[in-house]
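Late entry, evening session. Most of the bench is empty. Finally got around to the prediction I had been postponing all week. Sequence below, unchanged from the version circulated by S.P.
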Amino acid sequence: MVHAIRIHKPGGPEALQWDEIEVGAPGPGQIRLRHTAVGLNFIDVYHRTGLYPQPLPFIPGMEGAGVVEAVGPNVTSLKIGDRVAYAGSIGSYAEARLIQADRVVKLPAGITDQQAAAMMLQGMTVRYLIREVYPVKAGDTILIHAAAGGVGLILCQWANALGATVIGTVSSEEKAALARANGCHHPIIYTHEDFQKRVVEITQGKKLPVVYDSIGRDTFNQSLDCLRPRGLLALFGQASGTVPPVDLNILAQKGSLSITRPTLQTFIATADDLKTTAEDLFDVVLGGKVKISVNQTYPLKNAEQAHRDLEARKTTGSTVLTV
């Protein structure tokens, strides 16, 4: 019998229940995937708590990697035994699942299953942030919050490879050292100093063209104050809570600023978009420009503890649930 983590009622980490489930044969356009590794992301917390409501009961998790066990009718792009990975399709906290064949990508030989599970959602998020939301170029100075997190470490490396100067916020000396080792030129320990004032000092008053903010409520106002006129705040998460209602006139007062609230699903909505995004990510990893650090692993059945550690900010880099 196949097991999965299911949520029957939104709540704390204890809402993650280890259940037996049935996974049938794949239908038209589907594959049956046996997971070997599953990624842990903060969006999983939003789903668990009900911030992003899901029909109950449901299996959380937005990314995974594994081996194709069976293919359904009309699937010609994959075969049994192929190693594949995906992000953006809820239901990965399971030993096996059904998934549409056009929502997975084949894994290159040089990328392990754990690397793939750790990087698909976070790495493809970074790709749309720095290639499409605001195309980072050599000479730019940018700010990334949570620079020692999974997205943060990838973004620091990738932006550094593009020739940008990277400023990042972190919560401790240990995380500052980790961010610095991954391409962050100016880690700011926000528990010790005002990050907005440090940004002004580092840029000699010029401020920034873009801030990448996954924290939300606690950083929103100061993030705006880090931007130069016509700058962009890319708000792609809300780890500290939802941003309260904002009078949009403040954007004019602070210099004709812009705000965007992007999500990965929009940028990989088609099979072609998914393929292009994943291939860009695989290229920078295989080329050594971005290293994927799996800093924590937990057995899938121990997802409750993984969530507790993630919310307590005890984790760094990427975390994988092993199957």
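Two things to note before I forget:
The CA atoms of residues 30 and 100 lie 4 Å apart.
The mean pLDDT is 96.
Will write this up properly tomorrow.
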